[in-house]
Amino acid sequence: MNMKIPYALPSITDLEISYATDAAANGWGQSCYSYIERFEKQFAEHLGVRHAIATSSCTGAMHLGLAGLGIGNGDEVILADTNWIATVAPIVHAGAIPIFVDVRADTWCISVESLEAAISPQTRAIVATHLYGNLADLDQIIEIGHRHGIHVIEDAAEAIGSSYHGSAAGSRGYFGTFSFHGTKTVTTGEGGMWVSNDSDLFERVLALSNHGRDKNEWRQFVPRYIGFKFKMSNIQAALGCAQIERISELVARKKQILEYYRDRLGDLPGASMNPLQEGCSNGAWMPTIRLEGYGPNIAEILGASLTEAGIDARPFFPPLSSLEMFEARPENVTARQLAQESINLPSFHDMTETQMDVICEVVEGVAATSGQEGEVGFS
Question: What's the N-to-C CA distance of the chain in angstroms?
Fold first, then answer.
């Protein structure tokens, strides 16, 4: 059926259209990288980092970063079991071994206790994924990394607009990655960004991103490495330039929508939403509700009810270890429970209060008829 309420839509104004039109009309020859370079500079300044490389996707950015670190066969990379496949795919393609660990019940991000217990002599990197705008415990994770000599990577694909004790998400790891998919707060249609404060790593990754060619090599067809082609197009970057100029507006609207849901649904018995973490700011990319105590099928029941009402329901990420291509990790109990009890709610810039009310009514109705375990229901 045709969905009446999508889970995400971009906000495209005359500014985005004018920049993209200019790139299409004039961004060729010597100007073919003009918007790319401008977008990289604007994004680095916004984030407070030294270096940024615009890529074709966040997945590509992660792949480049791993290659820049020399991660390969037999190396282990630790990451949260609650994750999208795009985070682990580059690890597998690099020939490394992903080690899935459990997540915290309150932030839904990687558990530092599980992380430290999983460290082995083969561990080369830790990926701290900031889920749905929620923030991983960066201070503790970075301290663990320093203590063991392991690089910490920030997967900030979903965390534009989030900040951890004054630092923008994605800015504190050895490198960070971002997504500009059409569902994200800032979009270029498809696309991503690799960021870092380490200049040596930046030079390696920059060369790897363009077929291994060194930027100072005048013989343009003599690469230094066997690299990749993960560049963003100039037209995509033009969209990004407009979006980054509007980022305060875009993030503020996301936060408004999350707070509307929280005010309306937060008092339901057993309900919790994206956490309010002390000293942190949640960019609120994807409002998510968890209904504890309603049985293991509540997310499925709620998803079916939202779909029936014409609302584009988005499932919570299942544990990566539950997928057939990976070894099961039954000890990651919280990751499994979250997937059974949680669902993402629609959020987009031009969303109306009426649309949010319709969504909330469905959630309230499912909660009332399902009831927490041991209850008939509640009013």
Answer: 31
Q: Which pLDDT belongs to residue 21? A: 98
Q: State the pLDDT at residue 214.
A: 85
Q: For the chain, what percent of residues have pLDDT higher than 70?
A: 97
How many CB atoms are located within 10 Å of the residue 57 CB?
Answer: 20
Low-confidence ranges of the chain (pLDDT < 70): 1-3, 373-379
- Distances in Å between the alpha carbon of 377 and those of 252, 356, 358? 36, 23, 21
CB 116, CB 136: distance < 8 Å: no
User: Hunting for tokens 């951890």 — which residue is that?
Assistant: 164
User: How far apart are the C-alpha atoms of 367 and 379, rounded to whole Å?
Assistant: 9
| Distance of alpha carbon 48 from alpha carbon 246, whole angstroms | 17
Instruction: Name the phi and psi angles at 304, rounded to 5.
Output: -65, -40
Say how far apart CA 60 and CA 209 lie, in whole Å: 9
Q: Are 132 and 285 in contact (CB under 8 A)?
A: yes
The dihedral sign for the CA sequence 24, 29, 35, 40:
positive
Where helices occur in 8-57 by DSSP H, the ranges are 14-26, 34-47
What one-character-per-residue DSSP string does 293-338 give?
A: TS-TTHHHHHHHHHHHTTB--EEPPPBGGGSTTS---TT-HHHHHH
Q: How many C-beta atoms lie closer than 10 Å to residue 28's C-beta?
A: 11
pLDDT digits (tens, 9 = 90+) for 289-298: 999 999 999 9
Model pTM score: 0.95
Are 43 and 240 a contacting pair, CB within 8 Å?
yes
> Mind listing the domains of the chain with CATH numbers?
14-245 (3.40.640.10), 247-370 (3.90.1150.10)
Residue 126 phi/psi, 5-degree rounding, is -120, 130
